[in-house]
Amino acid sequence: LGLALYAGSLCAVSGAVFLYHDYCVIGAGPAGLQAAYFLQQAGRDYIVFERSHAPGSFFALYPRHRKLISINKQYTGKSNSEFNLRHDWNSLLSHDRRLLFRHYSRDFFPNADTMVRYLEDFASLLKLRIQYNTAIIHVTLEKNEQAWNGHYFLLTDQDRKNYKCSSLLVAAGMWVPNVVNFPGSEYVEGYETVSINPEDFAGQTVLILGRGNSAFETAENILGVTNFIHMVSRSRVRLSWATHYVGDLRAINNGLLDTYQLKSLDGLLEGDLEDLAIVKDKKGKLHITLRFYLENRNISAGIDSITLPQDELDNFATRAPYDRVIRCLGWKFDFSIYNRSLRMMPGKGNIKKYPQIKPSYESRGTRGLFVLGTASHSVDFRKSAGGFIHGFRYTTRAVHRLLENRHHGVPWPSTIYPITQLTNSIIKRVNEASGLYQMFSVLADIILLRENATAFEYLEEYPIGVLAELEMQTGRKARSGLFVIIMEYGRNFSGADKDVFYYNRAVGEAQHAWQSNFLHPVIYYYKHLPTEREMGLRPPDWPLPRPDAIHHIVEDFLTDWTAPNAHILPLRRFLENCLSTDLRNFFAESCFLFTFTHQKLPPFCQQGYVRMQGLLGSQELRHHAVQAGLLQDYTHTDFSGDRPHDSHDGSQEQLMRDHAIPVRPLQHLVNAKDE
């Protein structure tokens, strides 16, 4: 029957007229708008389908109590726009400085209505091509060898209009409520429809199903007017400051934890919701029981004929009846519109609410179908920020760069620098890059070394899950080794049961940098690009395979990794050991002396002084260099011939010394000190 229906659907569309676009985007939420921006900037043929009359329709309703939990930090003490995006969790990426969220709200936690207005302006000011009031109700495939991916995507809307595209970007979000069915679940009110007027709950007893931010947001709204609130969920409460995952419970919503632990009647319970049952008495009160008590019993016969847990255990926790039960269990992806030919399958385990996708955000079942935004969060669920605006604005840009290379032959953007700028380039990025900072352990900067390590090519914010496919996905070559720069938390610092405020939780010394707990930069060095097999065999909880060398830059209280001794010097020595070269900078006088005393000049002298370039000396610079012991003080030198030839002082001897750097094994490369 299924085959007959599928064949019938193909016959039905075979005679239809299709409007063609290279790219079709489903959904004009934040991710859809972000994808449309990049496609428009690249001059591509695209269309965005939005079922509502305006973009961001999800935020027109949610969160129900209208306060976002994405921060909007107005001041950071810095004017660097890239750095400031680290603390702006609402803005989308664009060239228009007017479209920064701080111009729309000064609230640290903005109102959701402001987000709706912001998204409307983003779409209109940038003139994005969006087709509103168009709900895509069916998506299928049409095999065609001439198509980019060997097939076209055929889309049908609510008016039976048909569209065809070569690549499909799904940015429809997660909007189908999670519902648990159990006896009596018809008495449960949903988060999406429950009243948000606290007066409607005055003097009532409430049970909330769920333990995420929507559940605590609902509780926070009625905390001061209810008799008491109980909250039940399968898992224990997870605090975002302990897990370092922004999707877990945020402090702004956790008032119920205070009233629970300070014994003000409210409370939290753990239990499998599918084992529950609700029975309504004659007065309209809701009684909580267990499903197995209702087996072989007729609920309609009345509550008096049903055994309740308190009949056997008189101190049963939920023995008091409730006036209302509210379901706050989050949302899941809508799989219903996708034909079986697309093989859009749900994930497994705790990511079953998301579609299955690769680390490149491409569907595992269909080439050319990419999932963007909240629905792509399976890649980094409970690890990073890929399910939120401040994370998926960067992953959406990464997907666009992958598509540009695949379909249009545009390689991943990169910049080539001389090897002398290696340390500076890394320090600059780890101190200001927002994509690395927000999508820690997911996006990485890649440094591709040129032959003989005389230069390097810098690629920004590449998905490390597809590191083995780097050459194919980016159009860049990694023939002479590479460095991978990512941000990481300490291995054992995050977790629902972790005490993240323990004494001596921070590391301050460079030699102990590998024990850093807070977010900090980590540099992996590979002599060869890791293979797919090596990626699959990486150690548990490691974002990358075991490298040839690794270096942790010690965590910093100010997240400012510019300290000369604690941050820069150990990094430079690590890079020098990996490359067996000297990455220091020199004055022209030093390079002049090296030409007479060394067979091989340091790269800085080769690329500067020998080519009649470099840092020109001045009286002030020379004075500073003499005081630092970097140069001989020639103003007091006796040139009469009486001075012995070997009477140079210690600083000159250090300058003339051969700076050959031995290559150390991996365990000695972590936190290398200057010798």
UniProtKB/TrEMBL annotation:
One of its GO terms (biological process) is ERAD pathway. InterPro entries: Auxin_biosynth/cation_transpt (IPR050982), FAD/NAD-bd_sf (IPR036188). Gene3D superfamilies: FAD/NAD(P)-binding domain (3.50.50.60). Its cofactor is FAD. GO terms for molecular function: flavin adenine dinucleotide binding; monooxygenase activity. Keywords: Endoplasmic reticulum, FAD, Flavoprotein, Glycoprotein, Oxidoreductase, Signal. It comes from the Eukaryota. Interacts with SEL1L. May interact with OS9 and DNAJC10. Interacts with TXNDC16. Belongs to the FOXRED2 family. PANTHER family: FAD-DEPENDENT OXIDOREDUCTASE DOMAIN-CONTAINING PROTEIN 2, FLAVIN-BINDING MONOOXYGENASE-LIKE PROTEIN (AFU_ORTHOLOGUE AFUA_4G09220). Probable flavoprotein which may function in endoplasmic reticulum associated degradation (ERAD). May bind non-native proteins in the endoplasmic reticulum and target them to the ubiquitination machinery for subsequent degradation. This is FAD-dependent oxidoreductase domain-containing protein 2. It comes from Cnemophilus loriae (Loria's bird-of-paradise).
